[in-house]
Amino acid sequence: MAACDDDFTLLDDPQNPNSAPPSTATASHTPPYQINPYDNDSDPFDSDPNSLSAKRLADRDDVHSGTSKRTRLPSSSGAGDYRKDREEWSDTAIACLLEAYSEKFVQLNRGNLRGRDWEEVAAVVSERCENQSKSVEQCKNKVDNLKKRYKLERHRLSNGGVATSHWPWFKQMEQIVGNSIAAKAAAEEEKSSGIGADSYSTRQTKRLGTVVNSPGTQINSMKLKPSNNLRWRRVVLKISGAALAGSAPNNIEPKVAMLVAREVSIACHVGVEVAIVVGGRNFFCGDAWVEQTGLDRCTAYQIGMMATVMNSVLLQSALEKLGVQTRVQSAFSMPEVAEPYSRQRAIRHLEKGRVVIFGGIGAGTGNPLFSTDTAAALRASEIHADAVLKGTNMEGVYVCDARNNSIAAEHISFRELASRGASPMDMMALTFCEENGIPVGIFNLHEPGNISRALCGERVGTLIDQTGPVA
Fold this sequence. Notes:
transferase, alpha/beta, nine-stranded mixed beta sheet, 17 helices, pyrimidine biosynthesis, disordered N terminus, coiled coil, UMP kinase activity
């Protein structure tokens, strides 16, 4: 038996068929690698000639294009997936996005969407497109891209003389972007020409709202409608505080407040711009306290000013519950409750389809010794209103003093009303309206339908103007 050393010897035996043939040692003369200190790719440890040539070609392309060489960082898998998802928008997803964006855009009276609004849009798109979940950033980027594409399409149509566009989303983007551009252009044109009574009548067609009933809430579905079909386009509605009280003293009747809100919303949805001045007699009557207690008149009227703001906030809540955006403005500082009064801001709110409520006594005029009727007349002149309508407990201006046997006049002049002496409206306010050519309507607001009909220009109650009845 051979030893272990013998076995290894046999493996090296040239006679053994399993032994490998002897390898001939050949001296390989490799030229030394020249390192160029100015070449970033002259790496002696880089053994892949293909990668070197690729790098040199990339550098050469950068030099020819005039750009500097930049190192690309490898992107993470999450960023790659996000970019892939952002670019993959099916027609169904785009349709859902535009529909959700349009609904929210209209609900905000064509205002910009905020963070919570975008979250709702993304949630709606993800819910309607079951196979595609979209984030807020994806929805924002897609809407921005669609707006850019719309502007390019509009530019192509205007320069090429083409009447129609074959882009499938052109009409929907026209409703979102096109109307906003037209409104801005009209506003700039109006500003350049100056604001006046003549230029005011030739303003842009305003954005009007239609109520869309939904299972949860009601929102405004905005559409464009010409205002020349309306008798009065902008109206100041004066609501008596005593009328708000109903049958309960020192209180506000919820049914009356909701009736006013419903009637005003109807008028807003057909295109009437409504500003409201509300009294505070249902909470506090300054005249009665002055007569009974001898309280200082300024102090009593200042208390009444705060009562009018209370009524304004209550009416704002009732209107917004019906989907009508409402702003309360006050002449004295109450930032937590109301906006500071600004004539330009009030006009802008009205142009956007919002209802503006001015606090009445003092809160409307800034002076405590003026009545709410005077505040209504003053605000109507400042915002260029077409009429002042006062809703009270009476049917209008009665011909006789005895209320039980009298009949409300349908049409009467300022002069005739002043000669009669008795009037359901403050004489200072009537004089101010007469001097500024603003007609006044007085009607009973408790009758269902009277407020909306009066705001739309129908003959309700008594109309007071400079001419009076024509024989």
